[in-house]
Amino acid sequence: MKKINILLLILFQANVSLAWNAAGHQLMAAITWDLLDEKQQSYWVDILKHHPRFAKDFKNNIPKHVKFNPSTYNEWIFRQAAIWPDLARGFQKNLQDKYHHGSWHYINYPLYLDKKIDTSFLNLNTNFKNSFHNNLNITQALKGNLAVLSKQGATKKEKALALSWILHLVGDSHQPLHSTALFSENYFSKGDRGGNLINIDGQGYIKNLHWYWDSRLDNSTSFKIIDLKAKKIGKKYNKIALKNQKKPINQWLNNANKLAKKYVYTPVLMGLLRDKEQQQNPQPTIYISNSYDKQARFVAEQQIAKAAFQLSHILEMIK
What is the CATH number for 290? Predict the structure, then answer.
């Protein structure tokens, strides 16, 4: 019975994590949707209706209150596409092999706790060489899928799949912990997996740093709540998002890396980990303070607005 309860808790936490991550990507898609005109909206939704998994992962999951409302039907499809690459994580093995690509979601620019250690195994190449495979990083995957979306000879099916990845990865590329990994000799010799291996406290069910940063945009996946929040954030960060709208992909990840060094791996957090490691103590659990949380929420909101404005610019240029 105890083992069953532990398993249920793990599954519950995983589902909560996915919901929070989904909320952030849907929010970005909602802001982007508001930036597109009706002709652009119709064009991209028409592409998405040719997605190879449209019937099972889109059509079969449309909520009733959205399904019979023409004003929300297309926008829901657009938002669903933004979370689809995460849905692929839960597919059966044969479908995972085809659709799930874990390394596409991040690039691990190294940050060292103390001295530099060997990180030559990392894929930090940002060029896409016309070949899709499971070991691409986020920059390569974005460039590759943008090439497909822009290709005149690509089918609508190919473009729909590429568009889903683009909608998702533009969001991921602005989350600081999709750009950076912490390395140290004892605690993180192969990296902290973008904060996944750093345990935290003070945030309820959220128990690691990556999960925490993925959840800074709250957990509601309500269509109306996301719509209201999208309008609020889009208006609040309009000026800075417009200023950054035309920057290249490499710069998005470089900027996310700078934010990770400043706001994620703060001097307090780094100091605590460094001291404990030097004393050869077990890795400590990091308590998330109110001041840290306030900064994290500000960064998350600003970054999601930048992502949405950059995505809208990309889609306007490709069409």
Answer: 1.10.575.10
The reported pLDDT for the residue numbered 139 is 98
109, pLDDT greater than 70: yes
pTM summary value:
0.93
State mean pLDDT over 269-296: 97
**Given CA atoms 237, 249, 171, 175 in this order, what sign does their dihedral have?**
negative
- Split into its structural domains, the chain has a count of 1
> pLDDT grade, residue 21 (50/70/90)?
confident
Nearest to 31 by CA among 170, 175, 200: 170
Domain with 297, as residue range(s), is 2-318
